[in-house]
Specification:
19% of the residues are buried. The protein has 1 helix and 8 strands. With 151 residues, it is an alpha+beta fold. The chain has an 8-stranded antiparallel barrel.
């Protein structure tokens, strides 16, 4: 009798474990896709993410250097474009903590969905306004554009 109960419990756990993974994938899916940060009509940054194995992963493509004014406007964008890995950390309500950068040198950046196609990234929460990203179709893959500085 005990062996039968143990076998049933093991079978139930083996069945339930993939379901838990599917639920996590479903919770992360709204954050997946191609997201773009625009300023004055130019794509300044692009984030491409997808969900796999209960994790959100992808890349951030941005100028190698940029500065930000207190009102949130970006300036002094410098080439070349750099790619940084992106991966999920913690999911709370409508906010997902992203780890941006290499495993030994990364930033923790909260990504909050304001609606299914708009997200705010709080790069320096409390110091400057959040950056507003918009979801765009995955194809074609977008690249950031570095606008020329006006003298």
């Amino acid at each position: 009798m005990r062996i039968t109960a143990l076998i049933r419990l093991t079978s139930l756990l083996l069945f339930a474990m993939p379901l838990a993974g599917c639920l996590r994938n479903a919770r992360l899916q709204p954050f997946a896709g191609q997201w773009v940060l625009k300023q004055s009509g130019a794509n300044l940054m692009v984030i491409r993410t997808h969900v796999s194995r209960r994790k959100l992963t992808g890349i951030l493509i941005a100028p190698s250097y940029l500065d930000e004014k207190g009102d949130g406007r970006l300036y002094e964008l410098k080439p070349p474009l750099k790619q940084k890995p992106v991966r999920s950390r913690k999911l709370k309500n409508k906010s997902l903590e992203l780890l941006v950068g290499e495993r030994t040198d990364y930033d923790v950046i909260p990504m909050t969905l304001t609606d299914p196609n708009h997200a705010q990234l709080h790069w320096a929460k409390g110091y400057v306004p959040p950056w507003h990203f918009e979801r765009v179709p995955d194809q074609p893959p977008l690249q950031p554009q570095i606008p020329e500085e006006k003298p």
